[in-house]
Specification:
DNA-bd_HTH_TetR-type_CS, mainly alpha, HTH_TetR, single chain, Homeodomain-like_sf, about 190 residues, about 70% helix, Arc Repressor Mutant, subunit A
Amino acid sequence: MKVTRAELAGRALDMFRKHGFDAVSVNDIAGSFNVTKGSFYHYFKSKDDILLDYYNNLLLNSNVLLDQILAGPATITNKVKTLTDIAVNATITLGPDLLQRLLVLYLTQESDLTILQEGGYLVNYLAALRTLFVQGKEQGQWAGELSGEDLYWNYIHDLLGLLSEWSVKNGSFDLKSAASKMIALLPAKA
């Protein structure tokens, strides 16, 4: 039986979501199509490659979207909210188990994460958020003593903490609601 890369990846992602990333082996994925592990390795180096391909495809046209958001007429606070919504929605789509694995790959640098390379989505996403916080401070839209750079780093740490907590708690709370509460804490001037 001939199986395509897309078919293998789709089935693997379904299996990951149903049984958990660690519980699914390459043998399980190949066996679901009655093909050998060699068929799997023809397309992927590891299960991690499936996850990374999926995440990169999920964000495929997002760099264009980032440019549109930055250039748009919305307030800086609303632009930050939109960028936060993008991260939250991508996280929910990925799911807690797969997000945990992606975080492990990032933190241990076990993989060549193209999303973290220059021009990669995550680098551009973080740069867009940083730009908004710095511009907001320069334009007098943020209250308080913190610089735009410090506001940015505080926000990123809060957002990553929230996403990580959601993942570790296996998606047991409403991530969108929690993110909305976090956005409400931004020091926007009235």
